[in-house]
Amino acid sequence: MAQPVRIQKVARLLQKTLGEIFLQETSRLLGNIMVTVTEVRISPDLGLAKVYLSFILTTNGADMLAKVEQQKGALRKILGNRIGHKLRKVPELRFYTDDSVAHAAKMHQLLDKLYIPEDSNIMQHEELMR
């Protein structure tokens, strides 16, 4: 089911603004990591935002997610200062790790390891077609 246009616009606004916040404030809030906001999903009442994050320059996404959770209040306050004039209420933020990039890399690695023997019948057919 398609989301209403308002919800899509708010999700894009939050994704863009949170991305900027993480880009500018990460070193102060979280240390030497890079955070990318890959997706934001908004509840129909605009009261809850599920924020999916991808962590770069770290090997343990769970620890980084815990650090982000500890800074949730500060992040929401910064977010409110930046978009407060566009939204009546800043939604509650829930953070999740987006591991789709890691999953894709793992799948690519597994596919590279596959051994697919050449079929001699196919090779003979290709030679005949030449």
Protein model, in words:
With 130 residues, the protein is an alpha+beta fold. It has five helices and three strands. A three-stranded mixed β-sheet has the order 1-2-3. α1 packs across α3 (72-83). The model has no long low-confidence stretch (mean pLDDT 82).
Secondary-structure topology with pairs:
Layout: H1 5-29, E1 34-42, E2 48-56, H2 61-70, H3 72-83, E3 92-97, H4 100-113, H5 120-129
Parallel strand pairs: 2-3
Antiparallel strand pairs: 1-2
Helix pairs in contact: 1-3
Order of helices and strands: HEEHHEHH
What is the level-2 CATH architecture name? 2-Layer Sandwich
Which outline best applies? extended
Report the CATH C-level class: Alpha Beta
Structural class of the secondary elements?
Answer: alpha+beta
CATH topology, anyone?
GMP Synthetase, Chain A, domain 3
Number of domains: 1
Count of runs of 4 or more consecutive helical residues: 5
CATH superfamily: K homology (KH) domain
Low-confidence stretches: none
Nearest-integer average pLDDT: 82
* Span of the ends, CA to CA: 51 Å
**Fraction of residues in H or I helices:** 40-55%
Question: Regarding quaternary structure, how should these chains be classified?
Answer: single chain
Largest sheet: 3 strands, mixed
Radius of gyration, CA atoms, in whole angstroms: 22 Å
Order of strands side by side in the largest beta sheet? 1-2-3
Beta-strand content bin: 15-25%
User: What's the count of strands?
Assistant: 3
